[in-house]
């Protein structure tokens, strides 16, 4: 296993607003992981899928590179995703907010090192956030 793995945001075509997931793009297929919210507006739930390659989805429109993370922290990233609250009580909350909140938590836990390249990449992703109309 490589010592680091790419962390990316996958953006998919979707009715309403675009769907986002967090994608751990490990070399080994068993470690590739897609983290996302599923369900309907205000009825979301977290899904963490191992052996899932976001880059081969037919609805994928963009894959945004964020940074490299320590490969030994893949399970920690999954656990942080599971522990990230899903804010279904907020009418404008979406999968896009969920991904951004996971990134914030990964920064707080020191999984993502807050360098300039990462911050630029994160800001580029944040600029793509859409609101429910």
From TrEMBL:
The lineage of its organism: Eukaryota, Fungi, Dikarya, Ascomycota, Pezizomycotina. This is Pc12g03710 protein. It comes from the Eukaryota. Pfam families: DUF6540.
